[in-house]
C-alpha cells in the first residue's frame, strides 16, 4: 500500500467548500488545485490539515447520494475556545448530529454535518 487519503467528492460545490474550510481551519493549506477546462469545477485539489491529506473534486457524474456521516474528519482541539468556535462556525448552515457537550468520553465533543454534507467530529480534553 502506497498511501491512504481522505477523499471528498462534491457535485459542483468543491471550490466553495475549499474556500470555506480555509476560513474555518487556519492551519489548512491547499497544496494543489486544478479546474476542469473552461469551468470553476474542481478537477482535483489536495489539501493538508495538520498532516491529514484531503483530496477534493467535483464529480463529472451525477450521483443520487451525498456524504454519509459514517465517514467523518476527526479534529482534536487544543483549547475549549477552539472547539466552541469551530462548532459554531461549522454548524452554520449545517446540522448537529451530536451537539457540543460532555458525553463521558470527552470533556467537550461535537459531531457536525456541515452545509456541504461533510461530517466533522470535534473533541477537546484537558489532558
UniProtKB/TrEMBL annotation:
<dbReference type="Pfam" id="PF06983">
    <property type="entry name" value="3-dmu-9_3-mt"/>
</dbReference>
<dbReference type="InterPro" id="IPR028973">
    <property type="entry name" value="PhnB-like"/>
</dbReference>
<feature type="domain" description="PhnB-like">
    <location>
        <begin position="4"/>
        <end position="122"/>
    </location>
</feature>
<protein>
    <submittedName>
        <fullName>PhnB protein</fullName>
    </submittedName>
</protein>
<dbReference type="InterPro" id="IPR009725">
    <property type="entry name" value="3_dmu_93_MTrfase"/>
</dbReference>
<dbReference type="InterPro" id="IPR029068">
    <property type="entry name" value="Glyas_Bleomycin-R_OHBP_Dase"/>
</dbReference>
